[in-house]
Amino acid sequence: MEVIRAPWRMGYINAASNASAPKKDDCFFCAYIAEKNDEENLVVARGTFSFVLMNRFPYSSGHLMIVPYRHTANFSDLLSDEYSEMFSFSQKATDVLKAIMRADGFNLGMNIGKVAGAGVDSHLHLHVVPRWNGDTNFMTVTAETKVLPEALSKTYNRLLKAWR
Fold first, then answer.
1. Which residues contact 104 (CB under 8 A, 6 or more apart)?
2. Which of 32, 120, 139, 156 could form a disulfide with 41 if both were Cys (CB 3.0 to 4.6 A apart)?
3. Helix (H, G, I), strand (E, B) or coil at 156
4. Could you give the percent of the chain with pLDDT greater than 70?
C-alpha cells in the first residue's frame, strides 16, 4: 500500500474536532477581515461588501470562497449589495480560474447549516471549485484522499496576479 502524506490536513482535523460552532468572536472569516494580512490568510481580493480567499483545505487546486464582510449564517439575510458583489466575484473567479488553471467546469455552492455540510456554519460563504475533465478518480472515492498538484502558496500568487 502506498501512503500519501498531507500534514497540512491536521489543521483541518483539529479545527473540525472542536464540537462547538464558532461564535462571531471566534470566526476566522471575521478575523481575516480585521487583520488585513492578506497573503498569510490567502485573501485574493477585497470588495466593498465581500472578499475572496483561497480555501486552506481545498477540494481541488484553486478552490476559492467568497465571503460577505457582515457576519451572518442566513442566506436570506444577505442584502442586495452583498448578494450582487458575491455573485459578481464568482463570475470573475470562474474567469480567472479558466485563464490560469484551464478549468473545464466549476462547482459553485453554499453549505448552509452544519447538517448541510458547512464546516463554518456561523458565517455564510460561497465556494467556487474548479473542475477538470477526468479529475474524479479512485483516490477520493476509495482512499478519502485528495491530490493537489500545486502548493497553496504558488496557486495564491498565480491567482493574485491574474485577479489584478
1. 131, 132, 133
2. 32
3. helix
4. 76
Count other C-beta atoms under 10 Å from residue 45's C-beta.
19
**pLDDT of residue 3 exceeding 80:** no
Report the b/e string of 46-80 with b at 16+ CB within 10 A: ebebbbbbbbebbebbbbbbbbbbebbeeeeebee
Global pTM exceeds 0.90: no
Q: Where are the alpha helices (DSSP H) in 71-128?
A: 80-101
Ranges 51-60, 114-123, 149-158: which has the least confidence: 149-158
Instruction: Please report the pLDDT score of residue 4 as a whole number.
Output: 64
| 63 in active site | no
Q: Which residue has the cell 479558466?
A: 98
**Nearest Cα residue to 152 out of 61, 76, 64, 46:** 61
Active-site residue identified among 63, 71, 123, 125: 125
